[in-house]
Amino acid sequence: MKTATSRVVTTLDVSVVVSACICGVFCGIYGLPFVRELNQRLNEADDMLSIYVAAGKQDRGKPRKGLAMLTLVGFFITGALALDIWVWYRIAHKMKKESQDSEANVLGYCPFYALYYILMMFHVLFAQSALGISNRFRRLNVALYHVFPEFNKTPIIEITSVSSTNNVSEKLDNAVEKIRGITTVSHVVHPQPLLTPDRVIEDLAYIHASLSTGVILVSNTFGVALLAVLGSCLLHLVATSYFLMVELVGDKDAVFSWIQALWLFIHIFRFLLTVEPCHITNVESRRTMAIVCNLMRTCQESSAKERLESFWRQLVGNNSAFTACGLCSIDRHIITSYCGAIATYLVILIQFKEADDKPLSKTGRRGFIKYFNETIYNNT
């Protein structure tokens, strides 16, 4: 931090991490009733959807995937922090001649590094909440295709083992089938509940409305924390890119450059861990409208078609989306906005750095002050 620009950027870098962690903790504490309501809605959706479509292997493995995501993120951030501390100890050892407290200053950043665990746990919590809603939307879309017979031509079949102690009649039947050239296996077709399409569409419309309310609950519960996290991602991407460019142009320390590149990758990963689950959920929610339109075009029953039209009007009026305090929608469109903002702020920081590297001389400062005073006098 040799220049004023570097000191300002570092101060902002630390401040946004602290503010994001504080907002995340307070949102988690005060938003606990809303989180419980969200879990109730998800459990209710699971109970209703299990009537129409069975949970696949991907759905049954969700808890393990969530635990694996948490473990990998924790392991990755631990390795990155360990490397960063080692790099700063390396730099402090080189500066030991100038300052005896350089290594002690590195230890002072350990509480700041611990905040990264809180920050990353919030990222994982939000991603799991968004992906949980997305999973229910996906199962709802699958159930919609099984409402009418023309979309449910393939029965659900389970392959079971055949007992070796079959009676004589079963052996004769199998022999006759083999003579006819028919190869069969023992299978069990799951009995489908005898529900009318009207009832199924009504239930699925209720589930979709409940999940859309869940999206609003997540946005309201974590809105302030999401705003702080998105701001921290923006400032971290700007600051890390700035320090990486300064190092590549200036001292050219290869180790420090690599650690800055690693942190740049981590901040990009943090940003995508927030944006991508929201985008997946929005895509699955909008896909329901396309499915309902296809069903309306092919449906022949008048009562079911009326239910589909009512469901379609509900989808048209649905404007639920993940937002950060209502200021911006969180989806892939925000990525282009971030790219433009990062490029703009990088240009500004580089110009400030050039001004710090080439300060005005005394003669230049006097000439500038004289010109400034003359300009003000002429204008007045």
From TrEMBL:
It is a multi-pass membrane protein. The chain crosses the membrane at residues 12-32, 67-89, 114-133, 222-243, 255-273. It holds the Pfam family 7tm_7. InterPro entries: 7TM_chemorcpt. GO terms for biological process: chemosensory behavior; male courtship behavior; sensory perception of taste; signal transduction. Keywords: Cell membrane, Membrane, Receptor, Transducer, Transmembrane, Transmembrane helix. One of its GO terms (cellular component) is axon. It is found in: Cell membrane. Its main location: membrane. Gustatory receptor which mediates acceptance or avoidance behavior, depending on its substrates. Belongs to the insect chemoreceptor superfamily. Gustatory receptor (GR) family. This is Gustatory receptor. The lineage of its organism: Eukaryota, Metazoa, Ecdysozoa, Arthropoda, Hexapoda.
